[in-house]
Design goal:
There is one protein chain. By secondary structure, the protein is mainly alpha-helical. The protein has one domain. Helix 4 runs antiparallel to helix 5. The N and C termini lie far apart (about 45 Å).
């Protein structure tokens, strides 16, 4: 897979982080960028774990992304080389949690991370107390409504 240059962040590893985040979360890089938290999350991780550990994770991720020729190979490689690897498993799980819930080791990264968690998109909901669904939204049936 090709890792494209994303935005104007000059850090090579940022592009790898975004590409592996796309594969781990199932959301496109554009969707992840639309949270407005991509650079914040990247910097947060850099401040939370040893840089060498994070770079090792990103190097493994880059190899997985570069060597996969199709989505099935990518899925299998992520499973075997990242999720089943004790050296990368915890970071991968933390990255997934970060994007979906906005938390790192149980704490919210910032005020926006709760509001922009991917979990709300998956649930077709809004974060209670943070983003309201909009005027007269109660008139629209939920997406998966059987009634």
């Amino acid at each position: 897979m090709i890792i494209n240059k994303i935005l104007n962040v000059d850090d090579y590893y940022y592009d790898v982080f975004m590409a592996i985040s796309e594969s781990l979360t199932g959301f496109s890089v554009n969707e992840l960028q639309s949270t407005g938290l991509a650079e914040t999350y990247y910097q947060h991780i850099l401040n939370q774990i040893e840089m060498a550990t994070f770079i090792d994770f990103l190097n493994v991720s880059k190899n997985v992304l570069d060597n996969a020729e199709n989505k099935d190979q990518l899925k299998n490689a992520i499973s075997s080389q990242i999720m089943d690897n004790p050296a990368t498993q915890q970071i991968a799980q933390s990255v997934i949690t970060l994007w979906y819930l906005g938390t790192w080791e149980g704490a919210y990264v910032n005020d926006r991370s709760y509001k922009e968690g991917l979990v709300w998109n998956v649930m077709h909901a809004h974060p209670p107390g943070a983003k309201q669904p909009g005027f007269k939204s109660w008139e629209t049936k939920p997406v998966n409504s059987n009634s």
